[in-house]
Amino acid sequence: MKLIDVGVGEIVKVEKNTAHNYLKERFLALGLTKGADVEVLRKGPKNNLTVYRIRGAMIALRNEESSLIEVL
Amino acid sequence: MGLTAQSVKMESLKDIYEIEKCEKQYIVALAGNPNTGKSTVFNYLTGLNQHTGNWPGKTVVSARGEFKHNNNEYIMVDLPGSYSLFTASKDEEVTRDFLCYGNYDAVVVVADATCLERNLNLVFQVSELTNKLILCINLIDEAKKKNIEIDKEGLQKELNIPIVLTSARSGEGMNELKKLIEETSQNKSNEEKAENLLYFEQDPELREKISEDNYNYANGLKQKYVKEDIKKLNRDKKIDDIVTSKKLGIPIMLVLLGLVFWITIQGANIPSQILADLLFGFQYKLNDIFISYGVNDFVRGVLIDGMYLSLAWVVSVMLPPMAIFFPLFTLFEDLGYLPRVAFNLDHMFKKACAHGKMCLTMCMGFGCNAAGVIGCRIIDSPRERLIAIITNNLVPCNGRFPLIIIISAAFFASTGSFVDSIIPALSITLMVLTGVFSTLAVSFVLSKTLLKGIPSTFTLELPPYRAPQVGRIIYSSIIDRTIFVLSRAVAVAAPAGAITWLLANIYVGDMSILIHMANFLDPLGKIIGLDGFILIAFIAGFPANEIVIPVMLMAYMSTGTLTDFESIESLRQILISNGWTAITAINVMLFSLLHWPCSTTLWTIKKETGSLKWTFAAFLIPTAVTFVVCFITANIFRLIW
Predict the structure, then answer these.
(1) Taking CB atoms and an 8 Å limit, are B215 and A55 in contact across chains?
(2) Third-level CATH fold of A3-71
(3) pTM value surpassing 0.90
(4) Which domains does chain B have, with CATH numbers?
């Protein structure tokens, strides 16, 4: 499953980071490493951004980005 | 090729990273995740006033300051916030390179006590580079409020690096931090770990593995040494559920914006009146004194009717709204509201093919467009950075807000009833929205023409809300912004006042030079719903937009209709007697909102883009926009009136 498909309120574990180059490094830096817990907090206006709790911080990602994270 | 000093040209780096120091001087670098309070630590130690605010990416260039402790001098370098040393956004590069090649004697990694797990990743990375490392766990006051407990002793033992718990805002733990800096930087036995530069050139898979290990370790440490209270942790979530919700997010934002302007206008009324009475009263006294000493009329005119009068206007018209507006704006910045604005508006910026962070640089533009242009460094993609730079001027800065506030207060207020008092606030809010809309529209057009491309990737951190420090806000927004802006305005207003008076009083033929100029520009002005005098004022405002109103008033008054200025009401009278209507007022506000950038901003754009072509574009595009928009509004108005 991809992170983009996870419903609000659910907590999932990161399985794979399929982004490349700069974005991949940014994901890793934010703590989206294999096994990390991610909680889906809320969708923003127009369902464009979604807020996730990652490693204790609130991070908003666009759909383009969250579709690159595979989760379990 | 590996990332070595040679491969990145050590020679050129030397100037930047080899900070010159004498004996008894030590260099201390401040690093850390974005938004952990590095700048607050920096300010506390050095006594400087580096601007602080609750949003990631605020410090884009490294600041430097000094402090003395036990007869030694410490040079502090405040590095831009970075999540990791692996990534390479422009500002993170500065941090990485300094930590790799800088000649520092100690590194303080500032971590957010409320988000330790994420912050530890950087600590591990820095510890691979140097053992002259101090971990400063900051915002401990916020952690206490959230019932987060950190076992400092245990963590210190396990990590084997000195740790200090601080709250830089209140000064808690800062003496201990100074002591640790002293001990660490004077410890000669510290060995260089430069060979670990290789650590950053590992292949991507290994880097992923390292990150994973780091984070797993950090997670373990957190389980072991940090106690959290789930109930308290959800406080921010509850606020955000409303403030950034699908339905209420944008309406709440607009209401807050309108409220800020309403408070500004209402609050500025009386102080403005008092200042005007005082300053214009003094003008008569000055006049009497000059006359009693038999000073030449011409000299008196230049000094009093020119210089003094324009100064008095700048102060009485600008000071009160600024002194109210800036603290309010800073309040929201400190609370952590700006990233929420970026969150709510992101779908629009995405549609405009602009970078998501452009919303933040746009908000910086409300303070000062030159600062906003520099802030665009947080955007990595050159295409999107250029768009952000060129469009930054389309939101009103410090220097233009007072004009918009004053004109709408004079024209759309206020017999005193509550409903009446809302109208100016509403019209200013509409102006700001027009600015935001123009920003988006111009970005969209640029993305489809000159700067083609799709928006690049984007991650936005919503930092925890923090209780603002009201005292510091008032101090910093009055010292940093109000006084700074006002003194710049005064410095320009005095000579501009003198020149305007001279132009208005030196006659060529049967008209003054000023009238000749106004007559020349009048047809152009009329086309876009303005007049020649207004255009002269905006041209005169090129060095500083703050002087547009004084120059305009002086130009009008020199034509002899009115010579006294006492209140907003008399301002209204002056304008109306010079043929102003509601549409003139609207178009002057629009023109001020959208017109060319001031000279400081243009100079900054030249520096940031390094290109004359784009600097010229940054001048031409807003100018074209303002003429088109004003032309359209003027003509629509003519049709329906």
Answers:
(1) yes
(2) SH3 type barrels. (2.30.30)
(3) no
(4) 2-228 (3.40.50.300), 249-640 (no CATH)
